[in-house]
Design a protein that fits this description.
- By secondary structure, the protein is an alpha/beta fold.
- The protein folds into two domains: 2-115, Transcription Elongation Factor S-II, Chain A, CATH 1.20.930; 125-423, Uncharacterised protein PF01937, DUF89, domain 3 (Rossmann fold), CATH 3.40.50.10880.
- The protein contains 18 helices and seven strands.
- The chain has helices spanning 2-24, 26-33, 35-56, 71-84, 98-114, 126-135, 137-152, 159-175, 199-202, 211-224, 242-256, 279-290, 295-310, 330-333, 335-341, 351-358, 370-373, 400-407, and strands at residues 206-209, 232-236, 262-267, 313-317, 346-350, 382-387, 418-423.
- The chain has a seven-stranded mixed beta sheet with strand order 1-7-6-5-2-3-4.
- It is globular, with a radius of gyration of 21 Å.
- The two termini are 35 Å apart.
- Residues 6-404 form the Damage-control phosphatase ARMT1-like metal-binding domain.
- This is Sugar phosphate phosphatase.
- Its cofactor is Mn(2+); Ni(2+).
Length: 426
């Protein structure tokens, strides 16, 4: 399965890159922290080399030994996996659910640094995220320019034109999800070309296209909107870099077109899946845009910083997003987060990992309804914007998946296909 290939080849490659990154920063650690920094780097590398060996030799998963706030939840989850195995031995790297194993690896990478001050705040994936952003400059400029031009006459757009613009920016945000560094084991893949030019050619690759439903929901919410009842959209973020910029453009459009009054962003509280957005990445991206020597890029950065200051944009992180649990257990494991999401008019889940957690990462029949696969996770109406990079997919028309699979065996993992898949949560 694709899971086997990931655990056998991709995860060790990612660990090797992390070890290499720490090696390369040895002098920097020494300059900043003296011998303590170098000692911490050695200990972290030793921890990660041991982790890589455990993975490659299919050792059992071990409980976390750190004092971080989520450790108890992780260890309870390991017990849950042990119970699932019905006495067939300990859960190990190749004998456990892929989603769990992959999340567990990233949590252990985090522990390797968290255990080793003074380098405990070092993000081993930061360079790759920054490189992705800089390599995508042309696409970022094209998108910011398009958006700033659009704003000049946004007030004059009729409903049909507003709808067209929303659909365009939803698609840019959808295809922005292709720039995923964990998918390429950290090899650079950035958005080089103008993302708006190819949208028409890409529509046929959207296997489930519920954009009309999103439009209806937002328009209806806007009509019922009162001061006491503002329209709130939440975006559960995926990758930093170009994808994040495409999400920010979409979020600002929702505000300026009056389709939403507030946008809440949800990022990761620790470095995760190589390129996922943390609070640092979010703030860094705004700073880079502000200081860019391109008028429309810096205009976007300044306006977006303003949105945060005015409180019409709110950034959150919650440790639930970096637990191994699928979202159907959120109400039980993170009732505070679930209650917060219930206040939203629309939840937009970006990317493949969120889709896997929405659907429990199971081997569903392709035609199983999305609503069913969500397994009672319905805090609010929700939509997944996702390019397919793992082999789970639901909500297709009967025969649709089989038909594509007949000519393209890799269709579920190539990132070529996408979904804009909505569930009304009723």
């Amino acid at each position: 399965s694709f899971a086997y290939f990931t655990v056998k080849d991709r995860l060790p490659q990612i660990l090797t890159r992390v070890i290499d990154t720490l090696h390369r920063h040895k002098n920097e650690f020494f300059e900043e922290h003296g011998e303590k920094g170098v000692e911490a780097e050695k200990r972290a590398i030793s921890f990660l080399s041991k982790l890589r060996n455990e993975l490659q030799t299919d050792k059992p998963m071990t409980p976390l030994e750190d004092e971080l706030p989520d450790a108890a939840l992780w260890n309870q989850y390991l017990d849950y996996q042990r119970n699932l195995s019905n006495g067939n031995g300990e859960p190990s790297w190749f004998q456990s659910p892929w989603l769990y194993v992959e999340c567990y690896m990233y949590r252990r990478i985090h522990a390797a640094l968290a255990h080793n001050p003074p380098i405990d705040n070092f993000d081993v994936f930061k360079e790759g995220k920054a490189q992705n952003f800089f390599e995508s400059q042309e696409a970022v400029i094209a998108l910011c320019t398009y958006f700033q031009e659009l704003l000049k006459n946004i007030k004059d757009l009729d409903e049909k034109q507003l709808q067209e613009e929303l659909f365009k920016l939803l698609q840019v945000s959808l295809w922005g999800n292709k720039c995923d560094l964990s998918f390429s084991a950290g090899e650079g893949i950035s958005q080089k070309s103008n993302p708006l030019q190819s949208l028409e050619n890409m529509v046929s690759y959207i296997l489930v296209n519920d954009m009309e439903k999103l439009w209806s929901l937002l328009v209806n919410a806007k009509e019922r909107n009162t001061e006491k009842n503002p329209v709130r959209v939440d975006i559960i973020l995926d990758n930093a870099g170009f994808e994040l910029v495409s999400d920010l453009v979409l979020a600002d459009f929702l505000l300026l077109s009056k389709l939403a009054d507030k946008v809440h962003f949800h990022g990761k509280s620790i470095p995760w899946f190589v390129s996922d957005t943390t609070k640092h990445d979010f703030n860094w991206t705004l700073k880079q845009l502000q200081s860019a020597n391109h008028m429309w890029m810096s205009r976007c950065g300044t306006n977006w910083e303003g949105n945060l200051k005015k409180g019409v944009w709110v950034y959150h992180d919650h440790m639930f997003w970096t637990l191994p649990h699928d979202f159907s257990s959120m109400a039980e494991v993170a009732p505070d987060l679930y209650a917060d999401l219930q206040k939203s008019n629309l939840l937009l889940f970006k990317g493949d990992l969120n889709y896997r957690k929405l659907t429990g990462d199971r081997k569903w029949e392709y035609s199983v309804p999305f609503h069913q696969a969500l397994n009672r996770f319905h805090p609010a109406p929700l939509c997944s914007l996702r390019t397919l990079k793992s082999d789970t997919q639901v909500g297709l028309k009967p025969g649709q998946g089989e038909q594509i699979g007949a000519s393209e065996p890799e269709w579920m993992i190539s990132g070529k296909y996408g979904v804009v898949q909505f569930d009304a949560a009723l």
